Amino acid sequence: xxxxxxxxxxxxxxxxxxxxxxxxxxxxxxxxxxxxxxxxxxxxxxxxxxxxxxxxxxxxxxxxxxxxxxxxxxxxxxxxxxxxxxxxxxxxxxxxxxxxxxxxxxxxxxxxxxxxxxxxxxxxxxxxxxxxxxxxxxxxxxxxxxxxxxxxxxxxxxxxxxxxxxxxxxxxxxxxxxxxxxxxxxxxxxxxxxxxxxxxxxxxxxxxxxxxxxxxxxxxxxxxxxxxxxxxxxxxxxxxxxxxxxxxx
Length: 249
What we know:
249 residues, mainly alpha, 0% strand, ABC-type transporter activity, ABC2_TM
């Protein structure tokens, strides 16, 4: 990370720290969802696990990240609409530093929000036998997932005409875990829905995280999960780069 990127990152992080309600707002929805499913629906859902919060947490973490990246898109949209982005273009700043500052801010802010959600899960009875190495792999998967969705968020942040348009992309991402193994085993779903659920990225990610947290093994599913993240990130990064260059013209 070059010095200019660090300065821009500091600017964005100061904005977030002066208004921590951003992190709190992002954390509230997944926490409320976790409380609802564990204490209201949990007793009626058969997952084959003793503690439903253990089954639920990986999916909730992905929902938390999907909610958080919407703010990246919103911050970019605000910079574009306010004319701040155009002002940066006239300064001796490496152009890529502008985008990377937003991406790294997303990584840090989402990490803080995920930590808050995990702490609440611990209070609700979440427990894991994972070693430090396995936890680091989980952190790596969540970080890669955050980067993939953040680069996806950059596109509407640069192209949207309204604030609603800048954040609307996150709604399908938040809904996607509901059609996966995040809340219930896919075996309980009708055949057509099950086929979709078992072959979409969220199920691969959720299953990989569960395997690491509770079984302590690295399965083949982890490579599928990583492939999804890298594939989404590569495509989003390419498109975002093209859109950003168009803004420079």
